[in-house]
Amino acid sequence: MKKLLSPFLVFALCIFNSCTNNASTMNDEVAKTLTPSYDVYVAGKENNKASYWKNTLKTELTNGEDITPLEIIVQSNNVYVTGTKGPTPTSLKPIHFFWKNGTRYEIKQYLHLPNTGLSDITAFTVYEGNVYFAGYVENPNAVNPLEKYELCYWKNDSKNILYKSQYIPSAEGIAAANSVTGTEVYVSAMVPDNNQNVSRGYFKNTTFNAIPAANYVFNFAKNNNGIQLLYQKNSKFYSKNVNTNLETLIGDYSNTLPFYGKITTDTGTNDLYTTYYNQGTTYYKNTNTVTPGFSSLPYIQDIFALNNNVYMIKYNSPNTTYTGKVYVNGVEAQTITSTQNSSQNFTGTFNAVYVVEN
Q1: Of 24, 31, 80, 335, which cross-links 18 as Cys (Cβ 3.0–4.6 Å)?
Q2: Phi, psi of 118 (to 5 degrees)
Q3: Angle, CA of 36, 42 and 48, to the nearest 5°
Q4: Cα separation of 247 and 21, whole Å?
């Protein structure tokens, strides 16, 4: 069951907060400004159907039954949503489908992947109207068994091989940006050599750049200062500006598992926001720890920031019930509740948020 607050009321409440709180404190519950108009997109599911909401108005995605959305991106009035049928032996959140403006594409068919053999597509972005994916695919006809698995990225449906091994590599994030030489593509990855030695780092086009001592690499965030890669080493979050090679210590990584991390940026202010991707109760704004105190829901599912305004999905799932809420500068804007179905999956969730300034 989903409850909605009118966007106008949310806007008014946020303006009220900005006038009645001390904006100088390290507290992103306070709205700095909401003078421009914004469209808030939330990807999730309701009644076990993949959907997205624009300013609380729902659009059900075509053939979205039993599919969980992973990410939503909006560019040039085009809405892109990725979705998964669930974990595979080699990925927690593989991409099985994506939608552009409601039209569904099956990943294996779209990327011309073999019908046999293993594959996991695990990274996605959109740049200048082109869709980019990254992941690995098994070559069932590999002549050399040492080159059985291929780490690749795809621009639209055009395949580019980054690395080959007899062991399975993986991709976590992908970004694209223009330079004086053309469009550069960045892929964060784990690459095993044929002696099972593992390196973690990122590809710039087809050149691999290892990050020594990294335990895990995550996604990229792009702003006016460059492209930032999030990674974890020595139980700390770090970011690396892949344009300048500047490494920045963000703060402690306190989760017992190494693979929960996400970085995003406020393109209006260049501030960086780091979360544990659906596992954490706090987040980092640049290098400062922020503990949201505006909600009794403990976990942060996703966060987005624009022009010093913070949009957040928080949730809790005790026993067999789920409650998720969207907050704008600490003010509740949208809520959804659900229970588990026969497959022990929650039938309604909020999973990702994206915001566009009008």
Answers
A1: 31
A2: -90, 150
A3: 160
A4: 34
14 membership: H or E segment, kind and range:
helix 7-20
CB atoms within 10 A of CB 237: 23
pTM over 0.85: yes
Q: Rounded to whole angstroms, how far apart are CA atoms 300 and 311?
A: 11
Cα distances from 34 to residues 19, 99, 144, 306, 310, in angstroms, run 11, 30, 58, 10, 10
Query: 10-residue block means of pLDDT along the chain (358 residues)?
Result: 43 38 40 71 97 98 97 98 94 95 98 94 98 97 95 98 97 96 96 95 98 96 97 96 97 82 97 90 96 95 97 95 98 97 90 96
Phi, psi (5° rounding) for residue 69? Answer: -65, 145
Q: How far apart are the first and last CA of the chain?
A: 30
Tell me, what's the pLDDT at 35?
56
Nearest-5° Cα angle at 14, 275 to 222: 35
Residue 289: both structure tokens together: 């720890």
Phi and psi at 275, nearest 5°, equal -130, 175
> In 10 A of CB 11, how many CB atoms?
17
Q: Determine contact, residues 229/173, Cβ cutoff 8 Å.
A: yes
Q: How far is CA 104 from CA 87, 94, 101, 155, 279, in A?
A: 20, 16, 9, 18, 29
Which bin fits 344, alpha (ψ -120 to 50), beta or left (φ > 0)? left
Are the beta carbons of 265 and 271 closer than 8 angstroms? yes
* Predicted pLDDT of residue 279: 79
Place of tokens 């979205």: 64
